[in-house]
Every structure is written in structure tokens, then in C-alpha cells.
Amino acid sequence: MDQFKQGMRQLAGAVTVVTAGKHDDIAGLTATAVCSLTADPPRLLACLNMNGVTFELLRRHGRFCVNVIGEDDLRVAEAFAGMGHVPPTGKFGVGEWEMAEDRAPRLRSALVAFECKVHSVTMLSTHGLAIGDVTAVHVAPHCGPLLYHDGQFAGLAGLLPA
Amino acid sequence: MDQFKQGMRQLAGAVTVVTAGKHDDIAGLTATAVCSLTADPPRLLACLNMNGVTFELLRRHGRFCVNVIGEDDLRVAEAFAGMGHVPPTGKFGVGEWEMAEDRAPRLRSALVAFECKVHSVTMLSTHGLAIGDVTAVHVAPHCGPLLYHDGQFAGLAGLLPA
Questions:
Q1: CATH of the domain at B122
Q2: Could you say which residues from 78 to 137 on chain A have a Cβ atom under 8 Å away from some Cβ of chain B?
Q3: Predicted TM-score of the model (pTM)
Q4: Lowest pLDDT segment from A76-80, A85-89, A108-112
Q5: Counted domains in chain A
Q6: Radius of gyration of chain B (CA)
Q7: Which ipTM was obtained for this model?
Q8: How many other C-beta atoms lie within 10 A of the C-beta of residue A75?
Q9: N or C terminus of chain B: which is more exposed, having fewer CB within 10 Å?
């Protein structure tokens, strides 16, 4: 249904990079299909294409990290979306990432990063719906959020008085 | 986990009004926890507090509508969030709504409205995760999208060149 895709272009979304894996077996992708589920317990969900490496690592290791991207990390969002310049060291060479033995990579400059343990994964046609129990939150707002709308990256603006 | 709530304030979201019910047994609420799931088949998901009337009607009638709100419908978003002025005729007196015998109310001025048939509902603690099969899409972009970030409504802005 082409009208569905056309309609979804009008649903603006915060840009995140979802990472999975650990040590040197890691992957990530730019995603907007992420949302809060419950605060008690702290839980969120992410919809990921099930054919990607990120989804495979998420399932294998049972952990992922949702990195919410700020305006000043546009190049990170582009790299993990397969656009823009990627250095020879790979996508994780763009931006400053904290790597750990037992956790998915975390972008140090994320507005907020949610470290998650997989609660459940539901497969629905082309996508996996991953629900994550949030185990750690790193909040560091320092610029406006990066958004995606109508096929373009954008920023946030105040509303004009009506 | 207060840090979770604080972190979620940094995850900007498109503002939608999710409606359910039919005829004169209708309800709706302002929500940002909506995202695309798969394009084939066209499917989306919405996370709703399970104690609300909207969720009750969604389950009872098996249908709902996701209305994506534009900047110029701020007052609609406010009314369905329990803020601002609500006329004696109720929330649906704010904005122009198409009512039908067998479908959930649709906001005529929505940037896009997705009519959905409930595919499944999963209860998770305080919230219900509703997955909807999209049965009709009404696309009518005419202004920028309304967003919610850090406790405030906002609009979209172009990015400044880096």
C-alpha cells in the first residue's frame, strides 16, 4: 500500500541509533520506530528490520542500546543510515562510542541513551518488535533533538503564538 | 525509575490523537507513542494506558484511528490531552471530525489519518500495546507537524548547514 508509505512520511520521528552486540561483534542502525512503553517498570520498544545484523545481534546477545541523536550528531545518523561518509574504521568511527565487554555500544554525545535487556521479541512479517527492559539511562541534553520528517532530517522549533 | 521519565523527555515525538469507538460511543487521547511497524502488510502500533476509555473502546470495537496532528491544530492536541479549553459539547467539539457508524472518528485536518483494525493487543503492566492493520490512509499535509519534546509542544525547523 503506497499510500501507507506516503502517509508515514508525515509522521515525524526522533532519530535514534539502535546498537546491539558486544566487544567487537557489534552493529547499529538509524531508526525512528522507537517509543516509550511503560515507566513502571521502565520499558521501551523498537521495531527493526529482521534481516539486518543489528537485529541478529540483539537476539543473540539479548541486549541493545537506544541512542537518541542530537542535531549536532547528524553525521552519526547519516553513517548508520548508510548515507554520508563512513571512515575505513567503519560506522563506529563516526562519533565517540563507549564500548564495553558486556553491553551494546553507547554514543557518549547522545541526548539520552537507554541500555536495555531484551524482554521479548515478536516477529511480524518483515520486522521484529523488540521490547526492552531499561537497565541504565544516561541523560545528557546539550542541543536540540534530530528529527526525521518527509524524507529529510530536521530540527525542532518553538511554536509561534496562535 | 525517575531517570527513565527524565530520559524520555528527550525523545521527541510526533503528536497524534488516537480515537476509538463508533457512533456516539467514542473517545480519544493525545499520544506520542505511535510508530510504523511494517509496510507490507501496512501495520502500525500504539501504546495506550489501559485504564483509559479510549483503550476500552479500542478493545470493544476492534478499531481505532491514528490522527497525526499539524501545528495549526495545537488546540485539538491540548483538548485531547486534558489541557486547554474544552467546549460544552466535549473534546470532539474542538476541530472538525468525521464521524461514521462503523469507524473511529477521523480529524479532517490531520496531516495523515490511519484507520486501523486491531490485529492484536498485548497488555504490559500499565499499558496496552495495540497493533493495527491499516485499512485506510487519508494524507493531507498542509502545514508542519506538531511535536512534543521536554514537556512542551513544538514545531519543526530546517537544519542549519554544519
A1: 2.30.110.10
A2: 111-112, 114, 124-127, 129, 131, 134, 137
A3: 0.96
A4: A85-89
A5: 1
A6: 16
A7: 0.95
A8: 15
A9: C
